[in-house]
Every structure is written in C-alpha cells, then in structure tokens.
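Hi all, posting the design record for the shared folder.

TITLE: backbone redesign
STEP: 1 of 1
STRUCTURE INPUT:
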C-alpha cells in the first residue's frame, strides 16, 4: 500500500468521505446504543473528578446520546458543524479522563484500588482519544457547511 505525499493528499476531492470518518460514524452510533443500553443501570458519572449521581448522571448520559448521535449523522453527511462538535467533544473527553484519573489517583487511601483505573488502561485510552482527535482534525477539508 502506497502512502500519499502531502501534495497528493491536498488533491483529494472535497466532500468525499474517508473510510476512517465512516468508521468513526459507526462507532458513534454504537456508543449511542451502548449508552441507551446502560442508561437505567448507570448510577454515577465521573465528571472532572467528581462522581455525579442520580438524575445528574442521567442528564449527562442524555447529553452524550444527543452529541454522539449528532456527530454520527453529521459525519455521514460531512457537516462542518459535526466536525467542530466532535473536536470539542473529544477534547472535553480527554480533559475529563485526565482530571478524573489524577483526582482519583491522589485522593485514594494507599490500600484502596477499587476505584482506580489501571495505569495501562488510562494511558491506552488517552493515546487512543488523542489519535482519534488528531485524525478528525486532519480530515477537516472533507467537511463542508
């Protein structure tokens, strides 16, 4: 498989959806279904190091459903606003994960690890989220108004 040079990449037709954007759209649709599936079972949501519980957690999940659905449909239609919302959503997710992880890490008693995400899972998730954000950002040209 041949890699495209920078000039060849710039010649890609605007408005032609890359396979990666289609795959991300499918993942956003699947995340909507997953969130709907756990909606009644979810009793708390980590938000910048604070566990939001009850109706607040349900409200945050509802916002996640709406945003993920908007991004998924917008990616299929290559809408510029969906691109912007996805970048903001990804950055928010990265910041939320990092702050929540470090707050939990530094506030737990030394003998407690029940709430602590493994460092490997944390690092892997952060790297994955950053790569997805970079990929979406790098495909800005294909999104139209």
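Okay, here is what came back for every position:
SEQUENCE:
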């Amino acid at each position: 498989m041949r890699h495209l040079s920078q000039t060849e990449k710039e010649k890609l037709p605007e408005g032609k959806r890359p396979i990666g954007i289609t795959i991300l759209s499918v993942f956003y649709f699947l995340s909507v279904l997953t969130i709907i599936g756990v909606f009644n079972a979810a009793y708390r949501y980590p938000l910048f190091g604070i566990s939001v519980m009850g109706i607040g957690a349900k409200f945050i999940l509802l916002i996640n459903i709406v945003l993920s659905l908007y991004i998924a449909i917008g990616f299929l239609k290559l809408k510029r606003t969906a691109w912007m919302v996805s970048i903001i959503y990804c950055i928010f997710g990265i910041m939320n994960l990092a702050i929540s992880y470090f707050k939990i890490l530094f506030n737990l008693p030394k003998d407690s690890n029940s709430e602590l995400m493994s460092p490997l899972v944390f690092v892997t998730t952060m790297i994955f989220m950053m790569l997805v954000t970079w990929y979406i950002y790098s495909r800005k040209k294909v999104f139209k108004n």
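COMMENT: Helices lie at 6-10, 19-38, 55-77, 80-107, 119-138.
Let me know if anyone wants the other runs.
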